[in-house]
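Weekly modeling sync, notes
Attendees: S.R. (lead), two postdocs, one rotation student

Agenda item 3: backlog of single-chain predictions. S.R. asked that every request posted to the team notebook include the full sequence so nobody has to chase files. The rotation student volunteered to paste the first one in as an example of the format we agreed on. Action items at the bottom.

Example entry:
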Amino acid sequence: MNQIIVLGISAGITLAIQLIGFLVAYAFQTEVFYDILGGLNYLALAIFSAVVGDSSVDPWSSDSRKIACVSIFAASRSWLLIFLAWRAYDRGGDSRFDEVKSKFFEFSAFWIGQAFWVVLISMPMIFVNSSSVDKPNFSVVDWISIILFGLAVLLAIVADIQKAAWVKRGRKGTFCRDGVWAYSRHPNYFGEILQWWACWVFAFSSGEGFSDVQWWFSILSPLFTMNILLNTKATGIPQANGASLKRYYNKCPEEYAEYRASTSILIPMIGYKNVPMFLKRTLFLDLERWEYRPKGGIVETVTGEDTIGV
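Predicted structure, as returned to the notebook:
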Protein backbone atom coordinates (compact mmCIF):
# COMPACT_ATOMS: atom_id res chain seq x y z
CA MET A 1 0.00 0.00 0.00
CA ASN A 2 1.23 3.50 -0.87
CA GLN A 3 2.95 5.32 2.03
CA ILE A 4 0.73 8.39 1.73
CA ILE A 5 -2.41 6.24 1.83
CA VAL A 6 -1.13 4.43 4.95
CA LEU A 7 -0.50 7.80 6.62
CA GLY A 8 -3.97 9.02 5.65
CA ILE A 9 -5.68 5.89 7.01
CA SER A 10 -3.58 6.16 10.19
CA ALA A 11 -4.85 9.72 10.64
CA GLY A 12 -8.42 8.51 10.13
CA ILE A 13 -8.01 5.71 12.67
CA THR A 14 -6.54 8.15 15.18
CA LEU A 15 -9.32 10.69 14.73
CA ALA A 16 -11.95 7.97 15.20
CA ILE A 17 -10.27 6.65 18.38
CA GLN A 18 -9.97 10.09 19.92
CA LEU A 19 -13.47 11.28 19.00
CA ILE A 20 -15.05 8.11 20.39
CA GLY A 21 -12.93 8.51 23.51
CA PHE A 22 -14.05 12.13 23.86
CA LEU A 23 -17.76 11.30 23.50
CA VAL A 24 -17.53 8.59 26.17
CA ALA A 25 -15.44 10.82 28.46
CA TYR A 26 -17.84 13.75 28.06
CA ALA A 27 -20.87 11.55 28.70
CA PHE A 28 -19.37 10.24 31.95
CA GLN A 29 -17.56 13.50 32.82
CA THR A 30 -14.20 11.82 33.31
CA GLU A 31 -10.67 12.13 32.00
CA VAL A 32 -9.31 8.96 33.58
CA PHE A 33 -8.57 7.20 30.29
CA TYR A 34 -7.34 10.23 28.30
CA ASP A 35 -3.63 9.39 28.56
CA ILE A 36 -4.30 5.65 28.32
CA LEU A 37 -6.16 6.08 25.04
CA GLY A 38 -3.32 8.22 23.72
CA GLY A 39 -0.79 5.48 24.48
CA LEU A 40 -2.97 2.75 23.00
CA ASN A 41 -3.48 4.87 19.89
CA TYR A 42 0.28 4.91 19.27
CA LEU A 43 0.46 1.14 19.54
CA ALA A 44 -2.57 0.74 17.27
CA LEU A 45 -0.81 2.75 14.54
CA ALA A 46 2.36 0.69 14.94
CA ILE A 47 0.37 -2.53 14.50
CA PHE A 48 -1.72 -1.18 11.61
CA SER A 49 1.26 0.15 9.63
CA ALA A 50 3.14 -3.11 10.22
CA VAL A 51 0.22 -5.19 8.96
CA VAL A 52 -0.32 -3.16 5.78
CA GLY A 53 3.44 -3.00 5.22
CA ASP A 54 3.63 -6.79 5.23
CA SER A 55 3.55 -8.86 2.03
CA SER A 56 4.58 -12.28 0.77
CA VAL A 57 7.23 -10.61 -1.39
CA ASP A 58 8.57 -8.41 1.40
CA PRO A 59 7.50 -9.90 4.76
CA TRP A 60 7.63 -7.47 7.68
CA SER A 61 9.13 -10.11 9.97
CA SER A 62 12.26 -10.35 7.84
CA ASP A 63 12.86 -6.60 7.56
CA SER A 64 15.36 -5.68 10.29
CA ARG A 65 14.88 -1.98 9.61
CA LYS A 66 11.15 -2.10 10.33
CA ILE A 67 11.57 -4.42 13.31
CA ALA A 68 14.20 -2.17 14.92
CA CYS A 69 12.19 1.02 14.42
CA VAL A 70 8.85 -0.37 15.59
CA SER A 71 10.37 -2.19 18.58
CA ILE A 72 11.94 0.99 19.96
CA PHE A 73 8.83 3.02 19.09
CA ALA A 74 6.62 0.52 20.93
CA ALA A 75 8.93 0.57 23.96
CA SER A 76 8.81 4.36 24.03
CA ARG A 77 5.04 4.63 23.74
CA SER A 78 4.37 1.70 26.08
CA TRP A 79 6.41 3.42 28.77
CA LEU A 80 4.54 6.67 28.13
CA LEU A 81 1.25 4.81 28.52
CA ILE A 82 2.33 3.15 31.78
CA PHE A 83 3.90 6.26 33.28
CA LEU A 84 1.06 8.67 32.50
CA ALA A 85 -1.58 6.18 33.66
CA TRP A 86 0.32 5.64 36.93
CA ARG A 87 0.81 9.38 37.46
CA ALA A 88 -2.87 10.14 36.89
CA TYR A 89 -3.83 7.37 39.33
CA ASP A 90 -1.26 8.51 41.89
CA ARG A 91 -2.52 12.10 41.72
CA GLY A 92 -6.16 11.07 41.79
CA GLY A 93 -6.93 12.57 38.40
CA ASP A 94 -5.65 15.25 36.05
CA SER A 95 -6.15 18.86 37.13
CA ARG A 96 -5.88 20.07 33.53
CA PHE A 97 -9.44 18.94 32.95
CA ASP A 98 -11.09 20.21 36.13
CA GLU A 99 -12.45 23.37 34.50
CA VAL A 100 -13.08 22.08 30.98
CA LYS A 101 -14.54 18.58 31.08
CA SER A 102 -18.06 19.97 31.46
CA LYS A 103 -17.58 22.21 28.40
CA PHE A 104 -18.17 20.31 25.17
CA PHE A 105 -15.94 22.27 22.78
CA GLU A 106 -13.12 23.04 25.21
CA PHE A 107 -12.95 19.42 26.35
CA SER A 108 -13.06 18.16 22.75
CA ALA A 109 -10.07 20.39 21.91
CA PHE A 110 -7.88 18.27 24.20
CA TRP A 111 -8.87 15.08 22.38
CA ILE A 112 -8.44 16.58 18.93
CA GLY A 113 -5.07 17.94 20.05
CA GLN A 114 -4.08 14.47 21.18
CA ALA A 115 -5.07 13.09 17.77
CA PHE A 116 -2.69 15.55 16.07
CA TRP A 117 0.01 14.70 18.63
CA VAL A 118 -0.26 10.94 18.00
CA VAL A 119 -0.22 11.22 14.20
CA LEU A 120 2.60 13.77 14.00
CA ILE A 121 4.87 11.89 16.43
CA SER A 122 4.21 8.58 14.63
CA MET A 123 5.00 9.84 11.12
CA PRO A 124 8.61 8.59 10.84
CA MET A 125 7.61 5.15 12.18
CA ILE A 126 4.67 4.94 9.76
CA PHE A 127 7.00 6.00 6.94
CA VAL A 128 9.42 3.15 7.75
CA ASN A 129 6.69 0.54 8.25
CA SER A 130 4.89 1.33 4.99
CA SER A 131 8.05 1.60 2.88
CA SER A 132 8.70 -0.79 -0.01
CA VAL A 133 12.36 0.22 -0.24
CA ASP A 134 14.63 -2.78 0.26
CA LYS A 135 17.83 -1.82 2.08
CA PRO A 136 18.64 -4.72 4.43
CA ASN A 137 22.10 -3.45 5.33
CA PHE A 138 22.35 -0.56 7.78
CA SER A 139 24.57 2.38 6.86
CA VAL A 140 26.74 4.16 9.41
CA VAL A 141 24.05 6.84 9.73
CA ASP A 142 21.42 4.14 10.25
CA TRP A 143 23.39 2.58 13.08
CA ILE A 144 24.07 5.91 14.76
CA SER A 145 20.46 7.05 14.51
CA ILE A 146 18.87 3.78 15.68
CA ILE A 147 21.29 3.57 18.63
CA LEU A 148 20.52 7.18 19.55
CA PHE A 149 16.81 6.40 19.22
CA GLY A 150 17.14 3.56 21.73
CA LEU A 151 19.40 5.50 24.11
CA ALA A 152 17.07 8.50 24.06
CA VAL A 153 14.10 6.30 24.99
CA LEU A 154 16.16 4.73 27.78
CA LEU A 155 17.21 8.16 29.06
CA ALA A 156 13.60 9.36 29.21
CA ILE A 157 12.53 6.22 31.07
CA VAL A 158 15.40 6.38 33.58
CA ALA A 159 14.78 10.09 34.20
CA ASP A 160 11.07 9.51 34.83
CA ILE A 161 11.77 6.63 37.23
CA GLN A 162 14.46 8.53 39.14
CA LYS A 163 12.25 11.62 39.51
CA ALA A 164 9.23 9.54 40.63
CA ALA A 165 11.38 7.69 43.18
CA TRP A 166 12.71 11.00 44.50
CA VAL A 167 9.16 12.32 44.92
CA LYS A 168 8.11 9.13 46.74
CA ARG A 169 11.02 9.56 49.16
CA GLY A 170 9.64 12.94 50.20
CA ARG A 171 11.44 15.31 47.77
CA LYS A 172 14.64 15.28 49.81
CA GLY A 173 16.76 18.35 49.04
CA THR A 174 13.84 20.43 47.63
CA PHE A 175 14.81 19.82 43.98
CA CYS A 176 15.88 16.60 42.28
CA ARG A 177 19.58 15.94 41.66
CA ASP A 178 19.42 12.14 41.61
CA GLY A 179 21.02 10.19 38.76
CA VAL A 180 20.76 11.91 35.40
CA TRP A 181 19.13 14.94 37.05
CA ALA A 182 22.59 15.89 38.32
CA TYR A 183 23.67 16.49 34.71
CA SER A 184 20.52 17.98 33.19
CA ARG A 185 17.65 20.00 34.64
CA HIS A 186 15.22 18.32 32.23
CA PRO A 187 16.74 15.00 31.05
CA ASN A 188 13.31 13.50 30.37
CA TYR A 189 12.51 16.27 27.88
CA PHE A 190 15.90 15.92 26.22
CA GLY A 191 15.28 12.18 25.78
CA GLU A 192 11.85 12.86 24.29
CA ILE A 193 13.22 15.40 21.80
CA LEU A 194 16.28 13.35 20.82
CA GLN A 195 14.34 10.16 20.15
CA TRP A 196 12.15 11.72 17.47
CA TRP A 197 15.06 13.43 15.73
CA ALA A 198 16.87 10.08 15.72
CA CYS A 199 13.79 8.25 14.44
CA TRP A 200 13.35 10.80 11.65
CA VAL A 201 16.99 10.44 10.55
CA PHE A 202 16.69 6.64 10.67
CA ALA A 203 13.61 6.82 8.42
CA PHE A 204 15.69 8.41 5.64
CA SER A 205 16.89 5.06 4.26
CA SER A 206 13.27 3.90 3.90
CA GLY A 207 12.61 6.62 1.34
CA GLU A 208 13.87 7.66 -2.06
CA GLY A 209 16.57 10.00 -0.82
CA PHE A 210 16.57 13.76 -0.24
CA SER A 211 13.90 14.23 -2.90
CA ASP A 212 11.37 12.20 -0.91
CA VAL A 213 8.70 14.73 0.07
CA GLN A 214 6.99 12.47 2.60
CA TRP A 215 10.24 11.90 4.48
CA TRP A 216 10.71 15.66 4.72
CA PHE A 217 7.08 16.00 5.80
CA SER A 218 7.70 13.60 8.68
CA ILE A 219 10.17 16.10 10.18
CA LEU A 220 7.02 17.47 11.80
CA SER A 221 7.50 14.72 14.40
CA PRO A 222 10.61 16.17 16.10
CA LEU A 223 9.62 19.78 15.34
CA PHE A 224 6.21 19.31 16.95
CA THR A 225 7.83 17.68 19.98
CA MET A 226 10.25 20.60 20.38
CA ASN A 227 7.44 23.12 20.00
CA ILE A 228 5.34 21.42 22.68
CA LEU A 229 8.19 21.07 25.17
CA LEU A 230 9.92 24.39 24.51
CA ASN A 231 7.14 26.82 23.58
CA THR A 232 3.87 25.67 25.15
CA LYS A 233 3.18 27.46 28.45
CA ALA A 234 0.98 24.71 29.88
CA THR A 235 3.63 22.00 29.70
CA GLY A 236 7.31 21.20 29.25
CA ILE A 237 10.12 23.62 30.06
CA PRO A 238 7.99 26.83 30.06
CA GLN A 239 5.71 25.35 32.73
CA ALA A 240 8.59 24.00 34.85
CA ASN A 241 10.55 27.25 34.79
CA GLY A 242 9.78 30.95 35.21
CA ALA A 243 7.31 31.52 38.06
CA SER A 244 7.42 27.79 38.93
CA LEU A 245 10.98 28.30 40.21
CA LYS A 246 9.76 30.58 43.00
CA ARG A 247 9.57 27.71 45.49
CA TYR A 248 13.25 26.89 44.99
CA TYR A 249 14.44 30.47 45.35
CA ASN A 250 12.30 30.85 48.47
CA LYS A 251 13.58 27.68 50.17
CA CYS A 252 17.20 27.38 49.01
CA PRO A 253 18.13 30.34 46.77
CA GLU A 254 21.91 29.96 46.79
CA GLU A 255 21.87 26.19 46.41
CA TYR A 256 19.39 26.27 43.53
CA ALA A 257 21.15 29.17 41.80
CA GLU A 258 24.38 27.15 41.87
CA TYR A 259 22.59 24.07 40.49
CA ARG A 260 21.00 26.13 37.73
CA ALA A 261 24.26 27.80 36.78
CA SER A 262 26.23 24.54 36.66
CA THR A 263 23.60 22.17 35.18
CA SER A 264 22.48 22.13 31.55
CA ILE A 265 18.82 22.78 30.92
CA LEU A 266 18.55 19.89 28.43
CA ILE A 267 21.67 18.06 27.26
CA PRO A 268 23.18 15.93 30.07
CA MET A 269 26.79 17.04 30.46
CA ILE A 270 29.65 17.84 32.81
CA GLY A 271 31.27 21.28 32.93
CA TYR A 272 28.23 23.34 32.00
CA LYS A 273 29.26 26.11 34.37
CA ASN A 274 32.23 26.85 32.12
CA VAL A 275 30.16 27.17 28.95
CA PRO A 276 30.09 30.80 27.67
CA MET A 277 26.76 32.56 28.15
CA PHE A 278 26.19 33.16 24.42
CA LEU A 279 26.36 29.40 23.84
CA LYS A 280 23.99 28.72 26.75
CA ARG A 281 21.50 31.19 25.29
CA THR A 282 21.74 29.73 21.78
CA LEU A 283 23.11 26.23 21.24
CA PHE A 284 22.06 24.93 24.67
CA LEU A 285 18.61 26.61 24.59
CA ASP A 286 18.97 28.00 28.14
CA LEU A 287 16.82 30.98 27.20
CA GLU A 288 16.39 34.13 29.24
CA ARG A 289 12.60 33.94 29.04
CA TRP A 290 12.72 30.88 31.33
CA GLU A 291 14.42 32.72 34.19
CA TYR A 292 12.54 33.42 37.41
CA ARG A 293 11.44 37.06 37.35
CA PRO A 294 9.59 38.25 40.44
CA LYS A 295 7.99 41.62 39.76
CA GLY A 296 10.24 44.39 41.03
CA GLY A 297 12.58 41.86 42.64
CA ILE A 298 15.83 40.06 41.96
CA VAL A 299 16.31 37.75 39.01
CA GLU A 300 18.61 34.73 39.25
CA THR A 301 20.19 33.90 35.90
CA VAL A 302 22.00 30.79 34.69
CA THR A 303 25.26 32.53 35.64
CA GLY A 304 24.18 32.63 39.28
CA GLU A 305 24.36 36.46 39.19
CA ASP A 306 21.57 38.75 40.40
CA THR A 307 19.89 41.24 38.08
CA ILE A 308 16.96 43.55 38.61
CA GLY A 309 13.58 42.05 37.77
CA VAL A 310 10.86 43.72 35.72
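Discussion: group reviewed the output briefly. Confidence is low (pLDDT under 50) at residues 304-310.
Action items: rotation student to repeat for the remaining queue; S.R. to check formatting next week.
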